[in-house]
Amino acid sequence: MTTQQQTIALIERYYAAFNAGDDEGMLACLAEDIAHDVNQGDRETGKDAFRAFLGRMDRAYRERLADIAIMANADGSRAAAEFIVHGEYLVGDEGLPPAHGQTYVLPAGAFFEIEGGLIRRVTVYYNLADWIAQVSA
């Protein structure tokens, strides 16, 4: 298997764990010093910070990703994924509209840096204004 294929398989495992609600499976795909660029937010660093982020997400949202397309460069050091988020807003999140079980469907993407067979950086993007419009309707 080429490094490009290994990277694609790593990202596939990461998102399979996400869809299974397997936080530990996701964390197993990450480097200890993971840099996580939260959509329109700050950079969080380290597995402990990522674990805390997952806890906040699990509390406030129920999400499943579909139509996942993964791409990687030839040497496997960079990857990107595009997908559709199917979600339910369960508990109000700080600075966001109140939650009462609203559903949403949102295109999103992520960029990855890979080192030593693990995800060293993940940067996630989606249209926050679109999400707010959907949960505020």
Structural descriptors:
137 residues, alpha+beta, Nuclear Transport Factor 2, Chain: A, six-stranded mixed beta sheet
If you had to describe this structure to a student in words, what would you say it looks like?
- The protein is α+β, with helices and mostly antiparallel strands and 137 residues long.
- The chain has a single domain (3-136), classed as Roll (Nuclear Transport Factor 2, Chain: A).
- Helices cover 34% and strands 42% of the residues.
- The protein contains four helices and six strands, in the order H-H-E-E-H-E-E-E-E-H.
- A six-stranded mixed beta sheet has the order 2-1-6-5-4-3.
- The protein starts with a helix and ends with a helix.
Secondary structure blueprint with pairings:
Blueprint: H1 3-20, H2 23-27, E1 30-37, E2 43-45, H3 47-60, E3 61-72, E4 78-89, E5 102-115, E6 118-126, H4 128-136
Parallel strand pairs: 1-6
Antiparallel strand pairs: 1-2, 3-4, 4-5, 5-6
Broad CATH class: Alpha Beta
The strands making up the biggest β-sheet line up spatially as 2-1-6-5-4-3
Order of helices and strands: HHEEHEEEEH
The domain count comes to 1
Structure class: alpha+beta
Global outline: globular
How many strands appear in the DSSP assignment? 6
Kindly provide the radius of gyration, computed on alpha-carbon positions and rounded to a whole number of angstroms.
15 Å
The pLDDT mean sits at: 96
Question: What distance lies between the first and last C-alpha atoms, to the nearest angstrom?
Answer: 47 Å
CATH topology: Nuclear Transport Factor 2, Chain: A
Residues in helices, as a percent range: 25-40%
Can you summarize the main beta sheet? Answer: 6 strands, mixed
